[in-house]
Amino acid sequence: MSKLTEAANGVYVISVTPFDETGAIDWDSLDRVTDRYLEAGADGLTILGMMGEAPKMTADEAAEIVARVIARAGGVPVVVGVSAPGLAALKGLGLKAMDTGAAGVMVAPPGSLRTDAQIRGYYAMVCEALGRDVPVVLQDFPLVTGVQISDEALGAIIDDCPSVVMLKHEDWPGLAKISRLRAAEAGGRRHISVLCGNGGSFLPEEMARGADGAMTGFAYPEMMVEVVRAMNAGETARAHDVFDAYLPLIRYETQPGLGLAVRKHALWRRGWIASPALRKPGAGLDRETAAEVDRLIDRQARRLEEIG
């Protein structure tokens, strides 16, 4: 499998990890949801991310998921989340994933980092531990990590660490950050790919600011595929029309603490996974919440019919 580069673009769907009601990994559903993501037009997949319940996995389970999805993807790039409290675990999973055929690894900063110097030093250590041949995706997600990566720290990491080839942009508000990054590149800084998260909440605006696509796990990845295609084709009105049809469900899914359960419920309703179960600690939707999600999905379907 080819490795991730600064030219990466399109939609890299963050995959859920399906479980059955006992908490065991549902391997058949993992195969099926992988197939459905690719059928929806995904250019790549990202596994063991925060919304893939990676912290709930054993090391053996994580390695088996990596091998299973890479084999199933059939050459489509697979990025593996390897964030961990210590560098030893990060390096172990990262190198194993690359040996298995991963296109690159994704690393979020630990919540203990506070200063620009600490953040810059951390990513220097990560890149040194993994080696210069391992492409790294820097996940900038302060709403979850609590780590604020300034423009100056991000620029220094890009300058210092050639193996950082992509920014997973999830700062919020963060549209101006994309503009400043692209302006710095116009001024001579090395170009890196920018794929955006946050459930696709700001995807049309992010594309307009210079993002290369999306890396997130909204339950309807075809929305992201169509919005990215339309924006790249200059069909801005079409992109916003499609996005607006999905926006009520996007809004509901981005609720902190509830989003993954909403996402899994929608994927279960679509038949992509056999159960909406989360591995403990974690709970599914109560009856009233599930009914609200179902109502949004039904309204979304009607709106999509209206706009064609």
Folded structure, characterized:
InterPro entries: Aldolase_TIM (IPR013785), DapA-like (IPR002220). Pfam families: DHDPS. Its EC number is 4.1.3.3, 4.2.1.41, 4.3.3.7. The protein is an alpha/beta fold and 308 residues long. The protein has a single domain (10-234), classed as TIM Barrel (Alpha-Beta Barrel), CATH 3.20.20. It contains twelve helices and eight strands. Strand 3 (78-81), helix 3 and strand 4 (104-107) form a beta-alpha-beta unit. The longest helix has 21 residues, at 287-307.
Total number of β-strand segments?
8
Order of helices and strands: EHEHEHEHEHHEHEHEHHHH
Distance between the termini: 36 Å
Class in CATH? Answer: Alpha Beta
Averaged pLDDT: 97
Spatial strand arrangement across the major sheet = 1-2-3-4-5-6-7-8
EC number: 4.1.3.3, 4.2.1.41, 4.3.3.7
Family: Belongs to the DapA family.
Pfam family, one: DHDPS
Protein name: Dihydrodipicolinate synthase family protein
List keywords for this structure.
12 helices; eight-stranded parallel β-barrel; 308 residues; TIM Barrel; globular; 8 strands; alpha/beta
Short synopsis of the structure:
Belongs to the DapA family. The chain is of the alpha/beta class.
Topology (elements, then pairings):
Blueprint lengths: L9 E5 L12 H13 L4 E4 L11 H15 L4 E4 L5 H14 L3 E4 L8 H15 L5 E5 L1 H4 L5 H10 L3 E6 L5 H12 L6 E4 L6 H7 L3 E2 L6 H12 L3 H18 L5 H11 L17 H21 L1
Helix pairs in contact: 1-2, 2-3, 3-4, 4-6, 8-9, 9-10, 10-12, 11-12
GO molecular function: 4-hydroxy-tetrahydrodipicolinate synthase activity; 5-dehydro-4-deoxyglucarate dehydratase activity; N-acetylneuraminate lyase activity
Keywords: Lyase
Enzyme class: lyase
